[in-house]
Design a protein that fits this description.
The chain is of the alpha+beta class and 1120 residues long. The chain has 43 helices and 39 strands. Among the domains are: 144 residues, Immunoglobulin-like, CATH 2.60.40.3500; 103 residues, Sandwich (Immunoglobulin-like); 216 residues, no CATH class.
């Protein structure tokens, strides 16, 4: 329980030193009124001292906001609000543990200076802070000779403690040095960094092998942890831990020591301490803590923009307690205040800066764009502010100071604030970039500028002189190349922040690499520095368009002779690699790769380039390397990777690179432009490289209708073919292509025919296909003949583009020949084999179109019902969604019924009724489904189908038909009375048939005879014409006549039978039913007649309503 709570319960004043509890002694007096006023800040200070440790308790009336840091033997606690303590009394009670206790910054900063052997831990208990000092306290020694005052005793104890500490250090140091293994001073110590996460806390733990001094600063969301140790932090474990309060963890080196910085929220609280040899930094979520407090708690004030050291020392205080960096900054601020020649620039965001001077103008350049009122960002000397000018460019901004005398300003930085003091001073430390030559680099000599942090390049055109400079800002204050270097092709301009390069030669480039930045040249950088070059006239700078006209490849020199000298040159280049020093072998290997590429061995060139890329990762960022690797990939057929490399912004605008890009692009008009621009360079290529590019160029010009340009490239092909006979088949083929494009088909055929019987399988195959194309163009082949010839081409050549072309043409030929299943099957196989080919991407749409036309356009795309069912079964995934798909399925069901595939039709209609159709369409499909189910003797399922579609209704005619089918279902279920009652008033012909059918099955012979007689009244015997065309109708009429005769015989109606015999005997004889009709109508002979029972059964089995159901089971009949 916090001591401040106990005080509130007792309701009386505490006098200093009068009350002790749990070993604690109260050192200050707290008024009673302060206990009840939460708006007033007060502190209850209590101390407990034991033999080997001491505890200092600071209790507050509300939760304190503070930060803590340990700098060597000083422990600093910075509060947002002043605290009420008496440091002298605390120092007196903690003698032997602390050298001094002091209060700064108007009571907001508490500083303890401890002895070296003392460890100090801070515990935060909400409204109470407890500082624990652990040590064997120095025993007091009484001096009888002296009766010193209080202050003299304190000083004496301090001196004794320092002497003991120094003696202990002297005793333990040699032994520790012997036990510790020697560290390599050139290698940083690798320290483990781990994290712990609790409810409202995230903790970073830096584990050192020994106690290391450190300091923690927190300002504007950035936390900086600086260690007095040359080390590197291992963040491996942090990669697998999700952090919410800590973000963007970075590390760096400052004056040879490690620093780690990260960002957090403004409302987070930072604490730090040492636990054995580990440094612990805690980030508390103050926002989450505030949710647990009452709403009356005041919000946390912002952290001060300056530390207590700045505020206290800026007034002239002693700086001996500060570290070197803070001391330099304070002294620099004092100098600026006294000189009044300074600028402070606050962009509000972290930014890198470069600063330099040319003539009497000073430049200040940042790597961020200023997008607000720039004058509000700058403070400083009025004279400087009057003449400052804004500079802006692509991705950067800066300032120009005219009329400046030659100065060397001091550059300082605090978070986002950059300060420049233009009064000469030697206080600030300067750090220089490492800048040294590498004459044996793989792509030629270069100068390397080393930097651990990423560098940004800014192209700046000097507004005064007019030349172009490359400016590289730095985020580290004072880090620059501040000397002048003059080389034949570039110069380094001295800067007091960052790097400034002026390129004299147009072939020199400055580019970023993994180790920092480099200065190099395409032609090989001249590295000799000469004072004689100081007055060298500057070349006229070429424009970017001029640079893009420069050749990238020098194949003639790279080849080292003709093909006959290949092996001699090959062995010599290998010897050069072996004999070269290790530092220069990269350059020799690059020459070897160029040699391979010049002779057309692109795979071998790639192997060497890949090795160089692995050996020296920086080399892959060079334009020359990218261009050579990309060209070798194009030549070997790996166009995907080649396109990514050659389409790089650094090289893609070059004319010679455009030749290789043109060989890959699918846009013939863009490719023709690239080939046209690079035609002169292509003439210088060796034949092994010129031939494939010329063939591709000819194809491109034909596709873009530029036959006159295609003729020029055909001449190149012809010249090469005359020297190299193996290329003659290629010439015949491309000559045929050109003639065909010009409409000279007979001459084109003659050129293609020369390859048809040739030995080159590739050109034999593509020439045969070209002849087929001409036959298609001139319509010389029937669809079946075309199918036959294309099927022969399927195995003529195995190549993606060729096979796809044949498959695409074969698909069209199958469709034209009416072989729709074969067309769909070929298209599906082609898509599976060549999914990435451009032509294949159109096949799925063509397949869907053909599939739909087979069912929706039966007159145009003729198929049998069996073929239609096969197409659906094999390619059902092509069924489109929506109304079109419903219509396809409906028509398929009709065709299945035609060939009595009733079960398949039932499955399709069931799917339509239950999952796809709505409204009238669903009611019609339900009627058809129930009709088919009745025909297949499934009355229960038929009733379910009607009920499933009944709610969606339809028109009156449809509703009447659905009622008849339902009555038929009731009849099949032997519910005769219910069935007859439901259609008692129906008078339609179909209803009469159904009525007699119900009466017949119910053995109601009288009604059955009556209904049958009504049916026969519509057509007399004289009107019945017997013919082959009406054979089906005649058989239906004969069944009705026989059934009525049988009903009359069951009623023993001899008169009725005699009338029927007289009226229908002639008709029944003509349709072949005369014998059984005579038997039924002769009542007296009927019962004894042989076969009478069989005749009765045969007639009884005939269901006259089946004919009605067969009309209902197709959509066309149902909609009539």
């Amino acid at each position: 329980m916090s001591l401040i709570v106990l005080m509130g319960l007792n309701q009386h004043a505490y006098a200093a030193g009068t009350i002790k509890g749990n070993g604690f002694e109260v050192l200050n007096q707290v008024a009673e009124s302060q206990n009840t006023d939460s708006s007033t800040n007060y502190t209850l200070v209590q101390v407990r001292v034991k033999q080997d440790f001491a505890e200092l308790s600071l209790s507050f009336n509300k939760k304190p906001v503070f930060t803590s840091a340990k700098i060597q033997d000083r422990f600093i606690v910075s509060f947002v609000e002043p605290i009420n303590v008496e440091p002298e009394k605390i120092q007196d009670k903690l003698e032997g543990f602390v050298k001094s206790v002091s209060l700064h910054n108007n009571g907001k900063v508490f500083v303890f200076e401890t002895y070296p052997q003392v460890t100090l831990d801070l515990s935060n208990l909400g409204e109470e802070l407890v500082l624990t000092f652990k040590n064997k306290p120095v025993e007091k020694k009484d001096d009888p000779k002296k009766d010193n005052s209080y202050e003299e005793k304190i000083d004496d104890l301090k001196r004794q403690a320092l002497d003991i500490a120094k003696q202990k250090d002297a005793d333990t140091k040699p032994q520790a040095e012997e036990e510790k293994p020697k560290e390599d001073p050139l290698q940083p110590l690798l320290i483990r960094v781990r994290t712990q996460i609790k409810d409202n806390l995230e903790r970073l733990i830096f584990e050192f092998p020994e106690t290391v001094p450190y300091a923690v600063t927190y300002e504007n969301r950035m936390v900086m942890v600086e260690f007095d140790k040359f080390a590197r932090a291992d963040f491996t474990e942090l990669k697998h831990t999700p952090l919410r309060l800590i973000s963007d963890i970075q590390q760096g080196e400052r004056d040879g020591n490690l620093y780690v910085r990260f960002w957090t929220q403004n409302l987070n609280r930072i604490e730090s301490f040492q636990s054995k040899n580990a440094v612990v930094v805690d980030v508390f979520n103050e926002l989450r803590d505030s949710e647990k407090q009452s709403k009356s708690d005041s919000p946390m004030p912002p952290f001060p923009d300056k530390t207590w050291e700045q505020r206290d020392i800026e007034k002239g205080g002693d700086t001996k307690l500060l570290d070197d960096e803070t001391r330099n900054k304070v002294l620099s601020d004092r100098t600026i205040q006294s000189s009044k020649q300074y600028l402070r620039i606050d962009l509000g965001i972290p930014a890198s800066m470069a600063a330099f001077q040319r003539g009497d103008h000073a430049f200040i350049i940042f790597d961020h764009v200023i997008d607000k009122d720039w004058k509000s960002l700058i403070t400083g000397s009025p004279k400087l502010l009057e003449k400052i000018e804004l500079l802006k460019g692509d991705g950067w901004s800066g300032f120009l100071l005219p009329d400046m005398s030659l100065v060397s300003p001091v550059v300082a930085r605090s978070m986002t604030i950059w300060t420049l003091d233009f009064a000469p001073t030697d206080i600030a430390k300067k750090t220089r970039f490492d800048f040294y030559p590498e004459p044996a680099f793989g792509l030629g000599p270069r100068f390397l500028i080393k930097s651990q942090d990423p560098l940004t390049q800014i192209k700046l055109k000097d507004p005064i002189i007019g030349d172009e400079l490359v400016v590289i800002p730095s985020s580290i204050p004072g880090k620059a190349i501040d000397e002048f270097f003059k080389y034949p092709e570039f110069e380094i301009i001295p800067a007091y922040q960052g790097i400034v390069v002026r390129c004299i030669s147009d072939s020199v480039a400055v580019r970023n690499v993994n180790e920092g930045a480099e200065v190099s040249s395409k032609k090989g950088l001249l590295m000799t520095q000469s004072q004689d070059l100081q007055n060298m006239p500057m070349k006229d700078a070429k424009t970017a368009d001029d640079k893009n006209q420069l050749p990238v490849f020098d194949f003639q020199n790279w080849a080292h002779g003709s093909d006959k000298e290949f092996y001699i040159s090959h062995d010599q280049l290998l010897k050069d690699i072996v004999d070269a020093p290790e530092a220069q072998r990269g350059l020799e290997r690059m020459n070897f790769a160029r040699f391979y590429m010049a002779h057309g061995y692109s795979h071998e060139a790639q192997a060497i380039l890949r090795y160089l890329q692995e050996f020296d990762p920086d080399i892959k960022s060079h334009p020359d390397f990218k261009a050579l690797l990309g060209a070798s990939l194009v030549h070997s057929g790996d166009t995907d990777e080649a396109w990514k490399i050659l389409n790089d912004p650094d090289i893609r605008d070059n004319v010679e690179v455009g030749l290789w890009l043109a060989a890959m692009t699918e846009n013939p008009y863009y490719a023709s432009e690239l080939f046209y621009n690079g035609a002169i360079l292509l003439d210088t290529y060796p034949e092994i490289l010129k031939m494939p590019l010329s063939m591709k160029a000819l194809e491109v010009f034909l596709k873009s209708d530029s036959t006159h340009l295609a003729e020029l490239y055909l001449e190149n092909i012809h010249k090469i073919a005359l020297n190299r006979p193996q290329y003659m088949p290629a010439y015949y083929f491309y000559n045929g292509m050109l003639l065909q494009a010009q409409g000279k088909f007979d001459e084109a055929k003659q050129s293609y025919e020369k390859n048809r019987q040739g030995k080159d399988r590739y050109y034999r195959a593509i020439s045969k296909l070209a002849l087929i194309n001409i036959a298609i163009q001139q319509k010389e082949l029937t669809p079946d003949e075309l199918v036959e010839q294309l099927e022969q081409m399927l195995f003529a050549w195995r190549d993606d583009e060729f096979e796809v072309d044949v498959a695409r043409k074969l698909f069209d030929a199958y469709v034209a020949a009416g072989k729709y299943p074969q067309a769909l099957l070929k298209a599906r196989d082609t898509i599976a084999l060549f999914p990435d080919e451009l032509e294949v991407k159109y096949l799925p749409a063509k397949m869907s179109e053909l599939f739909a036309n087979v069912f929706l356009k039966p007159d145009e795309f003729k198929t049998t019902p069996a073929q239609a069912f096969v197409i659906y079964s094999s390619f059902s995934e092509l069924t489109p969604p929506g109304a079109q798909g419903d219509l396809i399925l409906s028509k398929l069901a009709d065709r299945l019924v035609e060939i009595d595939l009733n079960e398949n039709a039932i499955d399709i209609l069931h799917h339509l009724v239950h999952f796809r159709l709505m409204g009238k369409e669903k009611a019609e499909a339900g009627l058809r489904l129930a009709s088919i189910q009745l025909l297949t003797h499934q009355p229960e399922k038929a009733l379910d189908s009607l009920l499933a579609s009944e709610a969606f209704g339809g028109d009156d005619d449809l509703a009447a038909k659905r009622r008849l089918v339902k009555v038929k279902i009731l009849t099949e279920l032997k519910k005769y009375d219910e069935a007859l009652a439901s259609i008692e008033n129906e008078t339609s012909p179909d209803a009469l048939v159904l009525k007699q059918d119900i009466a017949w099955k119910a053995k109601d012979w009288r009604r059955s005879a009556q209904y049958l007689g009504t049916i026969l009244q519509n057509e007399s015997a004289d009107d019945m014409v017997v013919s082959d065309e009406k054979k089906a109708e005649n058989q239906e009429a004969a069944q009705v006549i026989l059934r009525r005769a049988l009903a009359l015989s069951m009623l023993n109606d001899a008169v009725g039978l005699a009338q029927m015999r007289d009226e229908y005997k002639g008709f029944m004889d003509k349709v072949g039913q005369g014998e059984i009709f005579n038997m039924v109508t002769r009542l007296r002979d009927y019962e004894q007649a042989k076969g009478a029972t069989d005749a009765k059964n045969r007639i009884s089995e005939v269901d006259l309503f089946d004919q009605v159901l067969k009309k209902y089971k197709s959509k066309s009949s149902a909609s009539q």
